[in-house]
Amino acid sequence: MTIDPELDRAPPTQTGDQLAHEVATVLGGSLNPRRAALQLVNLIQLNMADWAMVVIPDRQTGAMMLVGDAAPTGVRIGRAGLTGRPLDRVLSAGGYEHIEGSDLSGLVPAEPFLQAAVALAPAEAVGVALTARGVTFGALVLLRQADAGFTAAEIGAAQRVADRAALALDSARMYQQQTHVAAVLQQSLRPPTLPSIPGLRLAACYRPAAENLDIGGDFYDVLGGDDDWLVAIGDVCGKGVEAAALTGQARQSIRTAAHFDRDPAAVLRVTNSVLYNPASTQFVTMLCARLRPDGTEVRVDLATAGHPPPLVLRADGRVEQLAVYGTAAALVAEVQYGAITFRLSRGDTMLMFTDGVDEAWGSEGQYGLERLQKMLPAYAGASPEVVCEAVEQDVMEYLDGTAHDDIALLAVTCGS
User: Fold this and answer.
1) 16: helix, coil or strand?
2) What DSSP designation does 329 have?
3) Pfam families this protein is in (predicted)?
4) pTM
5) Dihedral, 415, 346, 369, 361 alpha carbons, nearest 10
6) For the segment 54-88, what is each residue's pLDDT rounded down to a tens digit?
7) What is the pLDDT of residues 206-224, one digit of tens each?
8) CA-to-CA distance for 366 and 382, rounded, in angstroms?
């Protein structure tokens, strides 16, 4: 935004303490750092300065994000060229820097911000540190035309405003970082794509919990080669980083164990041994199925560690609930798991799911296995993608907007 230097500056409408309180109130309602920075700039320009911008460095990339009316979406520049300049001193040491005159580049280093600032020259510029929780993470830059410069008391007021703004901005930054970490961890719990397996068709569906900041513990995986494959689905108790860490351990343990022996009972036994921690109360439910296509059929060896068994939707519409049992992993040091064997014929589908499906809670109570079994026959002979989509849609309609747990589905259909 270019400001006409001929316009008189409006007098401050609030004292520094009043403005600091308003800044804390307004910015505290935003969890988006860029939006919060723009709100701060607007409040400053209404009450304390002719022009303002916020500078927030990215510690990972070394770049700096400049936010203000001149470029509402922000401008990213490198910090390397600022060494020894006033803005760099504020970002490095905290405190403030005060410069006067026509050369404002020491505190306003990039276009279009510099052009907007130069339109006010000669001017006074003050850069004050944004410091929260003992760390300086940014700077607030304020400009006034030279005939209405900053007094020592006004610089002190700007610092108090910056201190209150810093807490809100830092909270927004932390929330954004936490959201990003959650998204990355959540994505790591699922393979990006399902493999193409001759004689089989696979599909999966994953819908995170309604509280999308919580990292859930649902996962699935498919691994193997040639005509010998292992599919697994599981759920770690709890949420958050601890659950995500255990989920990662579980997936890696399954992959390592299956590299040597794809017998599902053996995979679960090894995984349980690795995950067991007497100092922890966390546990994992898992379902492992070994798939060996053979002509028009698939031999399936199935074992469970406390996870609900899959449903088998036959091509003629019959739905079978398999009887297989086993203790959840990580509860006791040693467990012997048993496996059952059955076959999928052409058009048959094995549907594996987590408790976000059968334990989904709507206005009529729990969704339940009975409802799932009743809706599946209509999709006999359908592709695994259609089966997964139909189940997900039915569960979401049953929930009718209420909060839900993570939902994971993995369907295996016999036939290319």
Assistant:
1) helix
2) B
3) SpoIIE
4) 0.63
5) 20
6) 999 887 777 888 888 888 777 888 877 778 899 99
7) 887 755 445 557 889 999 9
8) 26
